[in-house]
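Reply to thread "Modeling small-molecule complexes from scratch"

Following up on the discussion above, here's a worked example others can learn from. I took a protein sequence and the SMILES for flavin-adenine dinucleotide and predicted the complex. Inputs first:
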Amino acid sequence: MSRVIIIGSGIAGLFAALRVEQAGHEVIIITKQRPEDSSTNWAQGGIAGILDKTDGEGMQAHIEDTLSCGDGLCDEEIVRCVVEEAGDRIRDLLSIGVDFQKDGDDFHLVKEGGHSARRILHAKDATGAEIERALNNAVSTSDNITLRPHTLGVDLIQRVHGDPSKGIKGIWCLSLDSGEMESIAGDAVLIATGGCGQLWERTTNPPVASGDGLAMAVRAGATSKDMAFFQFHPTALMAGNNRPFLITEALRGEGGVLLDDKGLNAYRLGDLQPEDYSFTLDFSPDGSLATRDVVARACDQRMKISGADYVWLITDHLDKEELHSHFPTIESKLNEYALSLGKAPLPVAPAAHYMVGGLSVDINGRVLMANDSPIPGLYGIGEVACTGMHGANRLASNSLLEAVVFANRAAEHFISESVNNIENVPSWRAEGMLELEEHAPLIRDLETLRKTMTDDVGIVRTFNRLERAKRMLELLSKEVDLIWRRSIPSRELVELRNLVLVATHITEDALNRKENRGLHWNKDLI
Ligand SMILES: Cc1cc2nc3c(=O)[nH]c(=O)nc-3n(C[C@H](O)[C@H](O)[C@H](O)COP(=O)(O)OP(=O)(O)OC[C@H]3O[C@@H](n4cnc5c(N)ncnc54)[C@H](O)[C@@H]3O)c2cc1C
């Protein structure tokens, strides 16, 4: 029996855990907060995929939509592999107990921006919560999986310090309950830590999304890829002072339309369909249902021109009853602000949403070094990994799919190659380190970081702004490093250190790009 350590309890980590455990191996999952705290739990729209293996035409259309959204940078072999495995993995989810919405005997399928057909399975507008519930339930009844909540992965332990080619033998982590550092030994580590939306002031991501896994792996010799491609979701609700709440693209799939103030006035006075007044038509013939990069850029531009903090999402021309039944989670959130679907316009704005780039991995999820060889015993799956599936832009509802396909592939690879090679792991060296007495400087640094990323590395970029961000990040990196070297780790410190590193990779990749593609939009390159 071999032992794998999995960092993260979203769809990728939990699915991989169940696969590895079924093959008779031991699994330790560590997760930062509660088991369900993850982006997965917050996913609304659904999971794309063709269930019927004989539906070649349907699969081909899914492949073509994915390639077209990826703007020429997808790895076609990977796209084909993920689309072709979709049916099997979705059936796995069903057998684990995920309850997707039915329409009679068939599944109820929805459509989102960039999809040419209805091919998205969902559980109303809380698909991720349903997937997370079923997976956590299965994990909690398994004998060979130990799930450790409130345990923060801090750094990977290399078999030979400083030589990534010799592989990984464990992880140092911080118990957020006791404050103690601990080392855990394993035959392999699967990183499933999700994205890094916490880098920006406005994000749809949960607080756990701070790029930890990516930073840990990079420090252990891994390479990142395509980091400039960060997806901003066009429609986060801008009501109250709370964190932005995502309004799923499926709402626009059902006919929701985006208008600016001018369009809204014209719609109120005119007699055309709302879409005829949408500013999004100036950016794409697909209007409000164009791909996310186009719609987010359109919203950003209109907001910058008018100085408004949001644009409007119109649903009053649609059937209220149907909207309320299809989007109950959104409806109840709106009600908290005296808003409702099918009634008054909803104020929405783009928010940081999905990390398209990530750890460079191969077709089995093995994390690669700069020379493209895998780091033995290290896998990256889910949002943290850059598989080549999304190219320069992710097609809606393809990420849960990619996560589950690669979780399966990495698990199978680990099972096929697994050797029992547990070695002793060193304790964390805490001599001479001091307890951090003041967290205020870290909080100020985090604010500066988020402001920098929001102002200078957002939806629309310029070389000057990127250079400015780079200088600021160098300064922050030195500051954080100074504190890191003399302090006993705390969650705030670990996360800030990781966020600064990930921000640096995003900014450098953006600076190195010579053309605008997909999500990367530099005004100087137009
Ligand atoms: C609001 C929202 C809506 C979305 N809707 C959709 C959708 O409809 N369809 C779709 O396909 N995609 C959607 N996405 C994207 C999708 O949900 C994510 O890409 C996917 O869930 C990522 O899964 P994951 O397992 O890689 O990471 P996550 O689900 O984010 O899980 C990461 C896990 O790692 C843990 N973790 C992180 N760092 C550490 C650390 N240092 N130590 C220990 N644990 C750590 C976290 O606590 C968490 O448990 C949405 C995302 C958001 C935020």
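What I'd highlight from this example: The longest helix spans residues 463-486. The mean pLDDT is 95. Questions welcome below.
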